[in-house]
Amino acid sequence: MTETEVPLMDSEAFDLLSEARAMSREITGWRRHLHENPELSFEEVEATEYLGKILEGLGLHPVRRTKTGLWADISGHADGPTILIRVDMDALPIQEEAAVSYRSRRSGIMHACGHDGHAAMGVGAAKLLMAHRASLPGRVRVLLQPAEEKLPGGAPQMIEAGVLDGVQEAVGLHLIPFVGQRLLRAGEVSVVEGAAMASPDSYRVVVRGVGGHGAMPHLARDPVPAAAAIVSTLQTIVSRNVSPVTPAVVTVGSIHGGEADNVIPPEVTMTGTVRTFDDATRSLAETAMRRVITETAAAFGVLAEFTYERGYPVLVNAPHATRAFQAVTGSLLGDEALVPGEPMMGGEDFAYILRKTPGVYFWLGCANEELGAVYANHDPRFMIDESALPVGSALLAATAMRLLAG
What we know:
Elements: H1 16-22, H2 24-36, H3 45-57, E1 64-66, E2 69-75, E3 82-88, H4 115-131, E4 139-145, H5 154-161, E5 167-176, E6 178-179, E7 182-183, E8 189-191, E9 194-197, E10 199-208, E11 212-213, H6 223-234, H7 236-241, E12 248-256, E13 263-264, E14 267-276, H8 279-299, E15 303-309, E16 315-317, H9 319-333, E17 338-340, H10 350-356, E18 359-365, H11 388-404
Helix pairs in contact: 1-11, 2-4, 4-11, 6-8, 9-11
């Protein structure tokens, strides 16, 4: 069998989507509990306890726990390969504005990225797989991971704890209302083979001059025009350093300096993000930024301190796992449900897992205009069409079963 061939699987004998839809109320209940009780990255203590008890109630033993993370194995009839299903469960420091009855009970914290739904779908997939464990030619490991939203990410912590021991392939998903400019509705999915999500790096620049009176600029070393020139010059990093056919983004996200209209401040601080799809372009951008920032500051007679922090790696979907997922989608939902995808500049720490083992990460539609579920992830009005939840559970379970088939 070649790397890109996709074998048939026993799960096609099961109607996993109908089974998942029969569990809709249960999956939705799990999701709403998590939505009402959100916890920030590395603080998911209550979620870990809540979800661990559910897994144990489904018959998964042992459930292995870290402080804020857990996983368990579903073993089949043979000692075959191990496939990982990974979902995350952390919330964001956002005040919820969504008009739903199950709004967050915690001020300033919200599940604005859908991780409550991810966790619920992961548990739903576990329940489906437990019902068919006698047909599994190996095992499926279900990981409920903390802290996708905050560097250094929860994935490295779980990898260090041993969650990838023996794993051959992995599958993950993300609820999302858009692919490009197109709404991705509940019941639709999208996936990209190869580089699918960017490395989300961040940087900080401190331009240091000499403060003074605004009426006597000749006695100061003004960092403000230097900072303005740096902002302008940073726009050439991509346009004049990166190949026109290579995607990359350099954004200045914040700039702060001074307090009064008649005072030249001693320093200006700016921060931003860099997004790339390969390590060579990532390194090129960092090197070019350092040169541009340092030399532009020098031209203005001031100093610039440049700090660059690398975030998650590029997320790369493997050919075999991606095509297995596409075949599963056609079997469960019909080929029309698979919407052509395009790489996204967002970052995702599942990339750490895919650097260790091949796998696939897909986008699950959750938009519904009638419900008002049309706002992007991280928007305080973000909400989902919950009919997507059983679809996600079925796709996770069926993809894991297909990957087990070889």
